[in-house]
Amino acid sequence: MKSADLTNAVWQRSNGGGDDGGSVVEIAFVDGMIAMRDGANPDGPALIFTQAEWDAFVGGAKDGEFDLD
After folding, report:
1. Any idea where the domains of the chain sit in the sequence?
2. What kind and span of H or E run contains 34?
3. Which residues contact 29 (CB under 8 A, 6 or more apart)?
C-alpha cells in the first residue's frame, strides 16, 4: 500500500459541486505522489496515486473512459 505524509498537504478543490452539499473531490501533490479525498469528509481516508497512475486516470477521464453514457 502506498502512503504519503499528508500533514502539510495543500488540498485543491474540484470545480462544481460542494456549495449546495454535493460531492467535492480534493487533491494534493505530496512527496511525488497525488492524494485524493472526499472534501465533505476531510478527516476520512485518502487515495494515494503514483504519478504514472494519476496520469493514466486523468488520460482516461479525458478520453471519456468514465462517462456514464
Report:
1. 12-62
2. strand 33-38
3. 35
Higher pLDDT, 7 or 22: 7
Q: How far, in Å, CA of 54 to CA of 36, rounded?
A: 10
Residue 27, exposed/middle/buried by CB under 10 A (0-12, 13-18, 19+)? buried
Of 12, 38, 8, 34, the C-alpha closest to 25 is 38
* pLDDT per residue as tens digits for the range 11-55: 999 876 555 556 789 999 998 999 999 999 999 999 999 999 999
- Set of cell numbers at residue 68: 456514464
pTM summary value: 0.78
| Residue count (the chain) | 69
